Amino acid sequence: MLGLIVNPVAGMGGAVGLKGTDGAEALAEALRRGARPSSCGRARAFVSGFSALRTAVSFVTCRGAMGEDAFADGGYRVRVLEVGGGATGAGDTRDAAKIMEGTGVQMIAFCGGDGTARDIMDAVGERVPVLGIPAGVKMHSGVFAVTPEAAAGIAIRFIWGELPLMRGEVADVDEEAFRQGRVSSRLYGYLSVPHEPAGVQGMKAATPLTEDSEENRQAIARWVVESMEKGVVYLLGPGSTVKAISEALGIDYSLLGVDIVLDGKLIRKDAGEEEVMAAIAGRDGRIIVSPIGRQGFIFGRGNQQISGRALRALGRGAVTVVSTREKLEGMEAIRSDTGDREVDGWFRGGVKVLVDYNTFRVKRSEC
Fold first, then answer.
1. Residue 338 and residue 304: Cα distance in Å, rounded?
2. CA atoms of 331 and 341, how far apart (whole Å)
3. CA gyration radius for the chain?
4. How many other CB atoms are there within 10 angstroms of residue 193's CB atom?
5. How confident is the model at residue 87 (pLDDT cuts 50, 70, 90)?
6. pLDDT for the residue numbered 172
7. CA neighbours closer than 13 Å in the CB half-sphere of residue 275
8. Does residue 51 have a pLDDT over 50?
9. How far apart are CA 272 and CA 268, in angstroms?
10. 8 Å CB contact between 291 and 297
């Protein structure tokens, strides 16, 4: 028996340029900016992985958007708890996890981000095996599958007895500091997750600030700036490697957001998805991103403003991936998790990465 808990508001802040939706004020601001729910779609993608096992696996879930809606296709063996329905919050997640622990579920799959992981940890600790279905903005914790589809495969293998457990780190950042461009992260504890290194992401790793790595960033930035074309819109993703490009241009930037540059000038700082789409409409555009330390994600983690829709508008050839050598060596593979499986497939097999001045390396990718 498998439990499923969905955080209905997880990830809503990403596409509109917020850095999460923890708290009522952040959610209200996300809605004001036109944010749309996305976690239920991610939960459906997870559930669809069990379509061939509808009668073999039973589920326990919550009402409405907290889980029940993910089984809309029908045919699944589902018990719905009297938790959820209407407006929900962190307390509902904790209550659901505690009730599921009492039912004897083999595992609790939860759909959300780092804040949801903390709620699950507070409720059941390491007593119940869990697995995160990635649906938040940040997802720095080492308890999430790399995609919802991967989560389904891992859950099946675990309940079939094929995978052991490991301790996965639960980490989170101060969202208010994050929105102001400061990373204030801490380790909160651990959850018991299936041990599947290829399918469960590790905890985000910070890139060391060494003299060599800084020189490496500057060399990458010089090459990118010298290669920029007139009349082309550039979308600059989050992170210190990409922001070295802004510094080389002498423009303001948001360290943790997506900035838009045209002809060497900043035309939009910390843009949301709709602002990105407006900027590239009818124009030639390029996207410059750097993979997240250790995890390897170039899309779908912290830069949801550059959505599958934006990528389709510009095409695979518009993407340039940049990384310092040290950072690239610290990750197993490049990954993409936009939720658009066709777009994510563009990056499958291998990705060319700019690692120094006019120096590229092909890195293995898993998408």
1. 7
2. 22
3. 20
4. 27
5. confident
6. 82
7. 21
8. yes
9. 10
10. yes
State the architecture of 2-194 in CATH terms.
3-Layer(aba) Sandwich (3.40)
Q: Name the band, by pLDDT with cuts 50, 70 and 90, for residue 294.
A: confident
Number of other residues whose CB lies within 10 A of the CB of residue 367: 23
Domain range list for the chain: 2-194, 211-365
* Mean pLDDT on 312-338: 96
Residues 6+ apart with CB under 8 A from 129: 106, 107, 108, 158, 165, 192, 193, 194
Q: What is the pTM of this model?
A: 0.85
- Residues whose CB falls within 8 Å of the CB of residue 75, separated by 6 or more in sequence, listed in order: 54, 55
pLDDT band at residue 367 using 50, 70 and 90 as cut-offs: confident
Instruction: Tell me the pLDDT tens digit for each residue of 145-181.
Output: 999 999 999 999 999 999 999 999 999 865 554 445 4
* Token pair belonging to 116: 């949801």
**How many residues does this entry show for the chain?**
367
Q: Which ranges of the chain does DSSP label H, i.e. alpha helix?
A: 24-32, 39-48, 90-103, 114-124, 148-159, 175-179, 211-227, 240-249, 273-280, 308-314, 325-329, 341-345
Q: Which DSSP string do the residues of 233-275 spell out, in sequence order?
A: EEEE-SSHHHHHHHHHHT----TTS-EEEETTEEEESS--HHH
Residue with tokens 């994050």: 178
User: Cβ neighbours of residue 273 under 8 Å, at least 6 residues apart?
Assistant: 15, 16, 17, 304, 305, 306, 307, 309, 310
State what percent of residues in the chain have pLDDT above 90: 77
Query: How far apart are the C-alpha atoms of 132 and 280, rounded to whole Å?
Result: 34
CA atoms of 237 and 52, how far apart (whole Å): 39
